């Protein structure tokens, strides 16, 4: 086996491994913490000392993962076209 083939097969195996791992993560834990509020649900006001609810996660502290969002979209397309 020459080095180019070995490197190409290693890249493919690692890519498949991380893709499978991310898919399992999206299946087991479809929600991740919000990137804007870091799961705290509230953001400090620009002026004053108060806080306001995070608009991105609607004050839940959770956001749907990108992979899970894509999976839900593909399932909806399949469901709508097979009727």
The proportion of residues forming helix, as a percent range, comes to 40-55%
Percent range for β-strand residues = 5-15%
- How far is the N terminus from the C terminus? 49 Å
Question: Could you say which structural class the secondary elements and strand pairing correspond to?
Answer: alpha+beta
- Average pLDDT rating: 91
Tally of helical runs: 2
Rg, nearest Å? 20 Å
Q: Summarize the helix and strand pattern as letters.
A: HEEEEH
Number of strands: 4
Question: How is the biggest beta sheet arranged?
Answer: 2 strands, antiparallel
Strand arrangement, major sheet: 1-4
Which regions contain 5 or more consecutive residues with pLDDT less than 50? none
Kindly describe this structure.
Strand 2 (42-44) and strand 3 form a beta hairpin. Helices cover 51% and strands 14% of the residues. It has 83 residues and is of the alpha+beta class. It has helices at residues 3-28, 66-81; strands spanning 31-33, 42-44, 51-53, 62-64. The chain contains 2 helices and 4 strands. The mean pLDDT is 91. The longest helix is centred in the first third of the chain and has 26 residues, at 3-28. A two-stranded antiparallel ribbon has the order 1-4. A two-stranded antiparallel sheet has the order 2-3.
Features:
83 residues, alpha+beta, two-stranded antiparallel sheet, 2 helices
What is shown here, in short?
With 83 residues, the chain is α+β, with helices and mostly antiparallel strands. It has two helices and four strands; from the N terminus they run H-E-E-E-E-H. Helices cover 51% and strands 14% of the residues.
